[in-house]
Structures are given as structure tokens and as C-alpha cells.
Specification:
alpha/beta, 13 strands, seven-stranded mixed sheet, three-stranded antiparallel sheet
Length: 425
């Protein structure tokens, strides 16, 4: 029995086994750190948030990290810092969650959706290359499930399209960024991928140290959580100090205020300026307290996810079920989502299987309904996206989290394989 106290742990005993989809793994270490924070008298952005930023930068190898209240805010602030706005285009995969595209829409840019590769949720890189034009300022690839994209291919495309890039920028920092890079910006939507790695230019690199900018999500369902929350990370840009980028993020995330609450506590330092009418999306020390202890535990959490994925892998091979490959010679996933496809079924059969799994006490999910199928995006999506739709129609995601025991994963595997086999005849 797992003796950790968590309402999300699988229920075992005399009744039906209940396996939730993605409960948070919170230990006494996180609880104690939050308690200490509450007792410290400092609960908003302060010393723990600053420490988490430093530790995440060290963990990822990024030039800098700023912690915020969500990955969505992180993406929007990246676009704003980069000076991307009206008249610009941002390329986004059709197979993703709303946040990937919403941030670009919020800054006034036009989103250009790209279909998936056949049989994959990943963006079609050939279609991406064809879509780049003089208005394109950024591409936002998605590291879906915690598997990092082919960033060598993405940067090769960006380099080949240098002659079409027209630097702009609606603020001075953005102008320096665009001129310094001299190509479209690669902004990774790595909401699923903290801790993932990939071979890049002949050596292993961490998520956060590959793309020009990277966004991470710390939402409650993610591998690493602060309840809500997220972060923006970046690689150093020639000619721009990392501190300048960090400082701009601080302004954007705290009403344009020239001093945060921590800085204003210094003797005689009450006065501040408002540089611009900006936003409020900072992380609090209560959230950071959870993150600090999560980061201490994170190597073990990632290792456990890999063990569970291995149990599922063997079952998928046994039953002939297709799945994303998380651990290969080219990349090491964060193991966030275990996405599968049952050959030959349609969306109706997919729903029946999910319902049958629920009757066995197992919560499954679907990742994702492509954005062009969502009512709020139909008017924004030009063209057709047959590969994205085809992948979605028979995708089922199995529960993968660190509160599962081996016996739970074996139970999920056997039930899923048995049910799926009936639909594959």
C-alpha cells in the first residue's frame, strides 16, 4: 500500500478499484514548506519565488527564468517582450491546446495553423517551412506529452528562411531581439516537458536550453506543480543582457511597476514608478514553496514515470496498440502523457472504450481535440487539417502519474488491452 496521504491516490480494497487520471503528487515536504511560508509573513512574490527561478535556471541550463502564474501568461509575455503584435504572423500547430494560439491572438498577431505529420501529433515541418513569409515572426512548436520536438529541423528551417525575415518589434527590447536573432523566433510550448532532454547539434540538451524561449506549466495536472503557475525560460541572445530580459518580464508581470514588493521593503525604498499600463501575472511565494520541494523530488518523480510507461509499453506491444515513444536514442521524455491509438476505430468507438474503462474504475482522457474543431477557432483557421483530425479521432490517453503502483499500471494495461482487442477484431 502507498502510505502517502493524498486524496488523489488510487482507491483499493473491497470495492471497485478507482484510478484517477492525473492527481497531484504532494508530499509532507511540500506541505511543510508551504506552512513555513505562511508563518514567515511573506506570501506574495518574494525570496522563495526568486530562489525557484534561480534553481530552475540551473536545472534547465537556461540563460534566465522568470516564474509567473501560468504558462499561458509566460507565452504572452514572451511575445510582448519580443515586440510581436499587429501585422505579424505566428505559426502554431493545429494539434494543441487553446493556450498555444490564444497568447498570439491576445497580442494582436495572426495565427497560422499547421497540420500534423501523418500518424503523429507533431507539426508537419514541410508545411511549416512553406508557411514562412515576410510577416512571420515566430513559430511555437508543442512538446506534446513531454516529448521534445525536432528542434534541429526547426532551427534549420529558421536559418534557411533568413532572407524572408523582416525584423520589426513594437518596443525597444523586441527590436533588439529580432535584429539580434535575424530570423524567426522559436518559442517552445513545453507545458508538458520540464525535465525532458533531446540530442541537439550532437549533444544532449535540456528543455529550456534549446529553443530561443520556452514556456513551462506548473498546473495541478502537470508532472511538476505549484497548484497553478508556470515559467518563461530563455537562451541568452547576443547583445542583450539576461538581466535586461528578466527586468522586462518583471515590468510586464507586475503592472509595469519599477519595484516589486520585496524591493520596496528595503529601508527608504518605498517610491516606485509605473513604466507602462501592463499586466498582473506574478507567482506567489506560496506557489514557489510547493515548487521548491517538487524540484528536490523531481528526478525521482521522472524516474517513476518512466517505470510506469515501461509497463504500458509492454502491454501495447502485446495487444497491438499504437503509442507515442517517450524514450528513444534521440530523446528522453518527461513522461507526461501516455497517448495511444487503437488501429481502425472511429471517434464513436473511442468514446465507448473510454466509457468501458470508466466502468472498470479507470479514468482516461483525450489529448487533444484540434483547435480548428473548436467553435471559438473555426473562424480563425484557414484550410483543412486532415492529419490532425485523423490522429485525434482514435486517440486515448491512459492515466500516468506517480501515485500509481505497479499493480495499478498492470490493471490498467490488462483492462485496456482486453477492451481494445474487442474493437480491433
Amino acid at each position: 500500500m502507498d502510505d502517502r496521504s493524498s486524496g488523489g491516490a488510487p482507491k483499493r480494497g473491497g470495492g471497485l478499484r478507482r484510478i484517477e487520471f492525473s492527481p497531484p503528487d504532494i508530499s509532507e515536504a511540500e506541505i511543510q514548506e508551504v506552512t513555513d511560508t505562511l508563518r514567515s509573513g511573506w506570501i506574495t512574490t518574494g525570496p522563495r519565488t526568486k530562489r525557484l527561478e534561480r534553481e530552475l535556471a540551473e536545472y534547465t541550463g537556461a540563460g534566465g527564468v522568470v516564474c509567473l502564474n501560468s504558462a499561458t501568461a509566460a507565452e504572452e509575455l514572451i511575445l510582448r517582450a519580443a515586440g510581436i503584435g499587429e501585422g505579424d504572423e505566428v505559426i502554431v500547430p493545429a494539434y494543441t491546446y487553446s493556450a498555444t494560439a490564444a497568447a498570439a491572438i491576445h497580442v494582436g498577431a495572426r495565427v497560422v495553423f499547421i497540420d500534423s505529420q501523418p500518424g503523429s501529433p507533431q507539426m508537419d515541418y514541410d508545411a511549416l517551412e512553406e508557411a514562412v513569409n515576410e510577416r512571420t515572426k515566430a513559430v511555437i512548436p508543442v512538446d506534446i506529452g513531454g516529448i521534445l520536438c525536432d528542434y534541429e529541423r526547426l532551427f534549420d528551417i529558421a536559418e534557411r528562411k533568413r532572407d524572408r525575415f523582416r525584423p520589426g518589434g513594437n518596443n525597444s527590447l523586441g527590436q533588439k531581439m529580432q535584429q539580434g536573432l535575424g530570423r524567426i523566433m522559436v518559442i517552445a510550448d513545453c507545458a508538458h516537458g520540464l525535465g525532458a532532454k533531446r540530442l541537439f547539434r550532437g549533444r544532449w540538451r535540456n528543455a529550456g536550453d534549446i529553443a530561443d524561449f520556452t514556456t513551462f506549466s506548473f498546473h495541478a495536472v502537470k508532472n511538476f506543480t505549484t497548484g497553478e503557475g508556470g515559467a518563461a525560460a530563455w537562451r541568452s541572445i547576443e547583445g542583450i543582457e539576461d538581466e535586461e530580459i528578466y527586468r522586462y518580464f518583471q515590468l510586464l508581470s507586475l503592472h509595469g511597476q519599477s519595484k516589486d514588493a520585496l524591493a520596496k521593503t528595503r529601508l527608504g525604498a518605498w517610491e516606485y514608478d509605473i513604466i507602462g499600463p501592463w499586466y498582473k501575472c506574478n507567482m506567489t511565494d506560496i506557489m514557489a514553496a510547493i515548487g521548491l520541494k517538487q524540484l528536490e523530488r523531481y528526478p525521482g518523480l521522472l524516474a517513476r514515470r518512466r517505470e510506469i510507461a515501461g509497463i504500458y509499453d509492454r502491454a501495447c506491444e502485446k495487444f497491438g496498440i499504437s503509442r507515442l515513444k517517450h524514450y528513444t536514442e534521440e530523446g528522453i521524455s518527461s513522461g507526461h502523457l501516455y497517448m495511444t491509438r487503437i488501429p481502425g476505430i472511429d471517434s464513436g468507438a473511442r468514446q465507448e472504450i473510454i466509457t468501458l474503462m470508466a466502468h472498470k474504475g479507470i479514468a482516461c482522457n483525450v489529448h487533444y481535440k484540434p483547435l480548428p474543431l473548436m467553435s471559438g477557432y473555426k473562424g480563425l483557421c484557414r484550410g483543412r487539417f486532415p492529419n490532425a483530425v485523423a490522429y485525434y479521432e482514435n486517440e486515448i490517453t491512459l492515466p500516468l502519474h506517480t501515485l500509481l503502483l505497479d499493480e495499478d499500471a498492470a490493471y490498467v494495461s490488462e483492462q485496456y488491452g482486453t477492451i481494445a482487442r474487442e474493437y480491433m477484431k
